[in-house]
Every structure is written in structure tokens, then in C-alpha cells.
């Protein structure tokens, strides 16, 4: 759909100073839409563009990330994948997929449009589930050769489960083959949502229709797709571009009641999984631990997210000189 047939840019309904453009995708003969978001104040002639991919129960709302990238001379784009955020449509199951490969065509198209706008190089910056999707995309996606780098913010390499819970995960994922549309509970710990949303104890304002504090239902078909993708990743990938894996210095087992520790640790994923599987992504992987980081490192308290940005831009400067 690049160039001819491409829909015009429209003012973003969520963030002032941003614009959106629909990307039409067909999945199993059905029509879906993803949404490409760009900052209206992007540099006129950028050499490098950042493409942000969100996580599960998520969408792009991190204006401060876009502003920081633009201040450093990068152009900034984000992609709300089909079934997420701005791309939610009536009759579409929120956040659902049968395979993460379903997202590859819209990533292909987003990269093609960004390149057509004048960017010489594209670097994906992805959080959590977006990190899992983009890692597999960078490994075998059709447009992987167009990527100059990959930044993973607390990537979803495995579930933070053990013992009987891990056995239950395997059973439920297997059931996803025959009962894909069956759902079993909401997908995010509400205490994590409370730690980031300004209506509770957090700092951030976002659209609760797109990102409910308690998350969206988890469908067994989605669960199966994620487990299969994680199995592939754990076996080792051969990503050809440089990769930066950013994660908190520690994880915290989700408590039953509020504790201030929720503001300084990853309470969604186990950072040991990132340490373990990160080096297997390719031959040019850098791992960086962020002391005091939350699950979404870019939503951590101000001093911590400044450290995240410094680490990210320092790495970008290094790979720009080498590649």
C-alpha cells in the first residue's frame, strides 16, 4: 500500500502534535487495520528513524520518548499493531493473534513508509511483547535487512512462572489449538497498572479503553502463539543488526498489597530470562541493566528513565559510528 492507495495523514486523536495513518492488512481473508503514528515535529531530513512497538495491553502514548528522540536528531514513529490501541475496531478481539507472524506485514509496511519519507536507516524500539515480536521479525521477517538496529525494553522472552503454574501454562497453550477464542482471565496485574496510571499511584495518563489497568482477557490462541514464539527465540536467533537489551536490575514477585517496591522493579517479567536469552539473539548483542527500573523502563521514575535514555542514545551513537 506504499505510495499509491496510501491514506493521508490525520491528526492523532490521542496525542496533540502527532499524526496517524492507517495500514490495511488482511489476515485469513479478513480485513484489519494497524496505525502508524508520527510526530508532526519530526526533523525534516533525518538520517535515522526510530519505530516504536508497544507491549500487550498497550499502545503508544509515551510522548516523552518521542520528544527525547527528536531532540537527539532522530525522527520518531510508532506502530499500534492491529487489535491494539488506535487500531481497535468493533468486532475485533483486543490484542489477539493466532501467530506473531500476523504482525510482520504491517511492520514491513511501516518500515517501507518510513524509508519513503526520507529516512536512510530504521531502528525498532520495542517493549515487552513488542520486543518478542520484533526479535522474531529481525530474525526472519521479510524486511529484516532494512533494520539498522533493535532496542528491546524488557522483552517478553518467557513467562514469570514456575512449578505448577508453568505446567498449567503448557496445558492452556496446548488447548489453544482447539479452543483459540476461549479466554480465562485478565492479562495484567492490577497493581502494576496502579503503579503507572496517574489515577492511582502512577505518573502517566493514558486511554483506559486502550490500556485498562487490569488488562485485557487472555485468549488461549494468543497464549499458544506467544509460547511458540518464545520457544523459537530460546533456541537461538541470528539477528544480523546490532541489538540492545535493556531491563531492570531486579524483578519483584507480585505482592498481594501495595508496596513502594513496585516503583523500582519489574513485577511483570523475570529479568533473569532477559539475561539468559538475550545473548542468543545474534552476534551483536549488548545487555544493559537499569537500577530501579520498572517493567516498562520508559515509565520508571524520572531519574531512572533519564538513565534509560542515556544508555539508549549512547548505544545509538556507538552503532552509528561503526555501521
Automatic annotation (TrEMBL):
Record's keyword annotation contains Ligase: no
Keywords tagged on the record: Hydrolase
UniProt superkingdom: Bacteria
Single GO MF descriptor: hydrolase activity
Keyword Hydrolase: yes
Domain Serine aminopeptidase S33, chain residue ranges per copy: 46-250
Alphabetized InterPro entries for the sequence: AB_hydrolase_fold, Hydrolase_4, MAG_DAG_Lipase
PANTHER family (alphabetical): PHOSPHOLIPASE-RELATED
Name of the protein in its database record: Alpha/beta hydrolase
Annotated source species: Gilvimarinus xylanilyticus
Amino acid at each position: 500500500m506504499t505510495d499509491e492507495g496510501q491514506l493521508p495523514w490525520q491528526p492523532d486523536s490521542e496525542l496533540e502534535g502527532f499524526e496517524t495513518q492507517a495500514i490495511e492488512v488482511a489476515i485469513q481473508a479478513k480485513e484489519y487495520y494497524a496505525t502508524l503514528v508520527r510526530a508532526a515535529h519530526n526533523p525534516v531530513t533525518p538520517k535515522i528513524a526510530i519505530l516504536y512497538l508497544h507491549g500487550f495491553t498497550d499502545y503508544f502514548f509515551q510522548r516523552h520518548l518521542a520528544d527525547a528522540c527528536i531532540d537527539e536528531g532522530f525522527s520518531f514513529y510508532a506502530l499500534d499493531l492491529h487489535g491494539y490501541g488506535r487500531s481497535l475496531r468493533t468486532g475485533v478481539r483486543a490484542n489477539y493473534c493466532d501467530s506473531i507472524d500476523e504482525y510482520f506485514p504491517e511492520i514491513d509496511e511501516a518500515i517501507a513508509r518510513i524509508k519513503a519519507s526520507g529516512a536512510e536507516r530504521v531502528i525498532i524500539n520495542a517493549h515487552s511483547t513488542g520486543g518478542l515480536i520484533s526479535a522474531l521479525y529481525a530474525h526472519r521477517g521479510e524486511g529484516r535487512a532494512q533494520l539498522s538496529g533493535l532496542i528491546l525494553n524488557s522483552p517478553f522472552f518467557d513467562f514469570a512462572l514456575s512449578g505448577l503454574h508453568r505446567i498449567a501454562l503448557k496445558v492452556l497453550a496446548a488447548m489453544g489449538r482447539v479452543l483459540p477464542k476461549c479466554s480465562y482471565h485478565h492479562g495484567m496485574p492490577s497493581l502494576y497498572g496502579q503503579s503507572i496510571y496517574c489515577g492511582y499511584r502512577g505518573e502517566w495518563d493514558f486511554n483506559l479503553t486502550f490500556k485498562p489497568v487490569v488488562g485485557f482477557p487472555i485468549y488461549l490462541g494468543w497464549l499458544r502463539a506467544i509460547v511458540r514464539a518464545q520457544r523459537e527465540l530460546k533456541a537461538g536467533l541470528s539477528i544480523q543488526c546490532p541489538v540492545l537489551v535493556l531491563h531492570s536490575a531486579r524483578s519483584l514477585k507480585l505482592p498481594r498489597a501495595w508496596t513502594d517496591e513496585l516503583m523500582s522493579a519489574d513485577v511483570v517479567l523475570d529479568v533473569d530470562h532477559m539475561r539468559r536469552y538475550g545473548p542468543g539473539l545474534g552476534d551483536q548483542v549488548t545487555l544493559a541493566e537499569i537500577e530501579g527500573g520498572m517493567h516498562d523502563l520508559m515509565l520508571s521514575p524520572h531519574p531512572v528513565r533519564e538513565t534509560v535514555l542515556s544508555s539508549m542514545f549512547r548505544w545509538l551513537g556507538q552503532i552509528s559510528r561503526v555501521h
